[in-house]
Design brief:
Elements (H helix, E strand, L loop, with lengths): L1 H32 L2 H28 L2 H25 L4 H29 L5 H52 L15 H13 L2 H30 L1
């Protein structure tokens, strides 16, 4: 459990920093465009690449060290975030820069989140799965509550560059926590016998072969789709009004 707690603390700090940067970007875009649509597009560009690369991410996680993937994904996201701060400091940051960087961060974030989700069975005994899942929810919801509050207070004082520098500090904490822990390797497949197409479609075929699981996936997908849809409508209405 000690290994997981160290990793969890690092991810908690990093999530708060990343959340501050995202919230600050929405404020910055609103100041520049006064368009709710422009703000919502940040999330669209962040999520869309994840939908595309998710099937490939699973194969990647099975074939590369999870510790290396966490380091690569966190480092890539950190450089993207820092580039936003530098562009803002130089006075050349544009809205399309944010959309492009959000797409790249989305890819790294997808790798990071899926890798993190596969670590629990590797570093924890089964009796701690429920506790680990609850602590994982604390990372997401805790950052969602704390980050906007901190960003709203600090953004007028230190600007976008200052927020991104704070994000870099939180990234350093997460990066150090990954370095000092041991993450065991999963069982690797024989490279000569791997059918990439078979692996790529395994999840779809498995869900399709289990009608009850397929029904659950459809219901959850529709719920989240319409839930986000109403959320965006209300979000746009609040800004435009």
């Amino acid at each position: 459990m000690k290994t997981f707690i160290i990793l969890w603390f690092g991810q908690l700090f990093s999530s708060v920093g990343s959340g501050m940067t995202y919230f600050t970007l929405t404020l910055w875009v609103w100041q520049k465009t006064e368009s709710a649509t422009a703000i919502v597009l940040i999330l669209v560009f962040y999520q869309l690449p994840q939908v595309i690369i998710t099937p490939l991410t699973g194969i990647l996680i099975d074939r590369i060290s999870r510790k290396q993937l966490l380091i690569i994904s966190d480092t890539g996201s950190a450089f993207c975030t820092l580039s936003v701060g530098i562009l803002a400091f130089l006075g050349i940051l544009q809205v399309w820069h944010i959309y492009l960087i959000a797409s790249i961060i989305g890819c790294f974030g997808n790798i990071q989140s899926l890798t993190y989700s596969t670590l629990i069975p590797l570093i924890l005994p089964e009796k701690h799965y429920t506790r680990a899942s609850s602590m994982g929810s604390m990372v997401a919801y805790g950052a969602g509550i704390i980050s906007p509050a901190l960003a709203g207070v600090l953004f007028p004082m230190i600007g976008l560059l200052g927020i991104t520098l704070i994000d870099m500090i939180t990234f350093s904490i997460a990066f150090f926590s990954i370095l000092i822990i041991h993450i065991p390797h999963s069982i690797k497949q024989d490279q000569e016998k791997v059918d990439h197409i078979h692996n790529l479609t395994f999840g779809f075929r498995y869900i399709y072969s289990h009608p009850e699981l397929l029904s659950m996936v459809i219901v959850i997908s529709l719920f989240r789709f319409f839930g986000y849809g109403f959320q965006y409508v209300n979000f746009s209405f609040d800004f435009d009004s």
